[in-house]
Amino acid sequence: MNMTADAPLLAADGVPLAVKLKRAERRKKLRAALLVAPLAVFLLATFILPIALLLYRSVENPEVPAMLPKTVSALAGWQGQGLPDEAALGVFAQELTAAKDNKAMVGNAAKRLNMEISGYRSLLTKTVRAMPLDPAAGPLREQFVNIDERWAEADYWRVLRHHDSRYTGFYLQSSLDIKRGADDSLHMAGDDEAIYLKIFGRTLWMSAVVTLFCFLLGYPLAYWLVNLPTRKSNLLMIVVLLPFWTSVLVRVAAWIVLLQNEGLINGALMAMGFVDSPVQLAFNRIGVYIAMVHILLPFMILPVFSVMKAIPPTYMRAAVSLGSHPIPAFWKVYFPQTVAGVGAGALLVFIMSIGYYITPALLGGPDDQMVSYYVAFFTNNTVNWGMAAALGSLLLIATMALYTLYARIVGANRLSLG
Asked: Which of 84, 95, 357, 88 is nearest to 207 (CA)?
């Protein structure tokens, strides 16, 4: 049979080879997708979805709009001065009367409003109990003021007007110490009210100090391990990895025993005559630093060790043989090649530090608590999911910013340490 140059090559069954190759490629991709699908579902359910819910909860504001939807709409035309008109007050009274039997709804709305003005919870619940009002008893504004004089203040009505949407920036603004003024303008809180920026600054500072000490201790240790004989290096690496096999809570408890005034360290210092009285090492910033460095040190050693292991020792010998002093040769030849490992280790240690909770909570004092402590506080004590989610979201943003910075300076592809 004659075949032209443009005729497609056919398989034994008569199907063109190009078609069969495309079908094989599709089957291969489908099999790969099916193999990856369980992991993708797992990541979606345990990682991506919780983060998405966290971000959503930080702007969610359903409590007041669910109870007073018509009231917040009626207050939209109010200028924020004096008191709302009688029509808006009538709508407010009707919705309070309708919600009187729904104690859960009233409680949620009162709790949400109390976050903006202290005492709003008691004001709203007291007003709900006084419902319904009698239109024949006089102007509604006078009846509301008779229930509680605070209704004569415009601030309480302005707070209601802010809840015209099921989404709010209140939690994120509060997490950044941003307050809303009487004219609805945003401004930074005063020094006596600013809380969270100081906490974030403290968290970043403590994390940076822990990262620095992990580097100062971990880099020489990794260099020493690399230059030891393989057998000794492997044995000491097991010692480095031992903390991974012990609970963080157990390690913190052990440090409390060691660092307390009657602990082993103070006892040894006094026995050797270095101090006359116990040194305060626990329940302050020093104890937190010691325990966090101990716990996070392996996360610095392992990436640095991995990079150093791949550097040929002949580089340093060549630099010295060419007349360079060992110290300048180390900084100019050896250290630049370990930057990827140092960056990866510092990134791991810093990111883990900013989310630490157990160690500062057990070993630190009131002024040593980090952002994660307040996330736990809002979650467990006050059940304020909005503030907890907002603080967690800012931590997430800080983590992503750090990763972006690392990617620009060192290169994200070098995180693999290959």
From this structure: 357
- The helix/strand/coil state of 180 is strand
Vertex 340: Cα angle to 301 and 201 (nearest 5) = 75
Residue 204 to residue 197: CA distance in whole angstroms: 10
pTM, rounded to two decimals: 0.82
Give the span between the Cα atoms of 391 and 200, in whole angstroms: 9
Dihedral (CA of 26, 31, 32, 36) sign: positive
d(CA 75, CA 357): 43
Cα–Cα distances (Å) from 99 to 89, 139, 147, in that order, read 15, 22, 17
Which of these, 416, 397, 291, lies nearest to 343 by C-alpha position?
A: 416
C-beta separation of 82 from 54 below 8 A: no
Contact 150, 156 (CB under 8 A): yes
Question: Residue 156 and residue 183: Cα distance in Å, rounded?
Answer: 13
Three-class DSSP category at 60: strand
The tokens for 238 are 């097991």
Dihedral angle, C-alpha 390, 396, 400, 403, nearest 10 °: 150
The CA-CA-CA angle for residues 121, 180, 64, to 5°, reads 40
> Can you read off the two tokens belonging to residue 60?
């969610």
Amino acid letter, 178: I
Q: Which of 39-43, 122-126, 239-243, 351-355 has the lowest mean pLDDT?
A: 239-243
pLDDT tier, 82 (very low <50, low <70, confident <90, very high otherwise): confident
| Signed CA dihedral, 283, 286, 287, 289: sign only | positive
pLDDT, tens digit (0-9, with 9 covering 90-100), for 178-193: 988 767 778 888 888 8
Q: What is the pLDDT of residues 87-125, one digit of tens each?
A: 999 999 999 999 999 999 999 999 999 998 999 999 999
- Give the C-alpha distances (Å, rounded to integers) separating 76 from 83, 91, 301: 13, 13, 59
CA-closest candidate to residue 225, choices 216, 217, 215, 234 = 234
- Number of helices (H), then strands (E), belonging to the chain: the values are 21, 2
What is the rounded CA–CA span in Å between residue 341 and residue 197?
31
**Among 90, 81, 92, CA closest to 154:** 81
